[in-house]
Design goal:
By secondary structure, this protein is mostly helical. It contains 6 helices and 2 strands. It has a two-stranded antiparallel ribbon with strand order 1-2. Strand 1 and strand 2 form a beta hairpin. Helix 3 packs antiparallel against helix 4 and helix 3 packs parallel to helix 6. The longest helix is centred in the middle third of the chain and has 27 residues. The N and C termini lie far apart (42 Å).
């Protein structure tokens, strides 16, 4: 385990671009949302639209950082890395999950069985079959996805970014 952590630390410390794939992350969240929509029996428009915005921002960020990496633009890469670091924090909702406020991540949390649960607030609201809880959970998830999208959009509007 020590070797794995050392390799990880070395890889992160020496990477010009952090090895975080937000495009893949957005696609995986889309899979999670599709499963919840299937269980709910209806499309969750607000969350879907926010996810579209996050996916688009992630794609633009990936294109811009790939171009910056190819050109060796270290300033743009630094800004791109800071944007990547902000994404995960964007998924934190300070109110936490209903009934479990110590779990604040809107994408992942343990279920009551400690098994992993994806889109926990929304998933639990759908399981409860309470429309008012689903609306609130969807609002909170959409807000988190929009915060993440804004982190990446800030980078793509950076003056020397290849995407501008």
């Amino acid at each position: 385990l020590t070797r794995i952590w050392a390799t990880l630390a070395t890889r992160l410390a020496n990477a010009d671009l952090l090895p975080l794939d937000e495009v893949r992350y957005a696609h995986r969240v889309r899979d999670f949302l599709a499963e919840i929509e299937r269980r709910w029996g209806a499309r969750l428009e607000r969350a879907s639209k926010a996810l579209d915005r996050f996916d688009e921002a992630a794609s633009q960020h990936a294109a811009a950082t790939t171009a910056a990496l190819a050109s060796g633009d270290s300033t743009t890469l630094d800004v791109g890395n800071r944007a990547l670091m902000g994404v995960e924090a964007s998924f934190i909702d300070h109110e936490g999950l209903p009934g479990r406020p110590w779990y604040r991540h809107q994408i992942f949390a343990p279920a009551f069985t400690y098994e992993p649960e994806v889109l926990p607030g929304l998933s639990e609201a759908v399981e409860a079959r309470k429309p008012e809880l689903v609306v609130e959970a969807e609002r909170r998830l959409a807000a988190a996805l929009d915060r993440a999208a804004r982190c990446l959009e800030v980078f793509t509007t950076f003056p020397s970014s290849p995407a501008s």
